[in-house]
User: Fold this.
Amino acid sequence: MSDRAALFLFSILMIAVSLGAAVWLLVTGQAGTVDGLFLLLTALLSAAVFGLYVKFILGRAMEAQKQAQAPAQSTAAGRVAAKQQATPVG
Assistant:
């Protein structure tokens, strides 16, 4: 498994754990205290940070995939244009 895949899976795990902790604080009523409120905000903040990281990873992966497809499409278009020029019309 590559480093990027491991970081992606770890980030997904951290998002799930953070959101789970936030839901647990709300369900049990502990978010009503000052300590619980700050713990809730911390859990939501960590979920947001890991969520932004996952968004960044997915954006980079999609951009790299588009760049990998662009040369293949341009060479295919070049072959079609060369084939059309080589074929006599008439």
The chain has a mean pLDDT of 87. The helical segments are 3-28, 34-86.
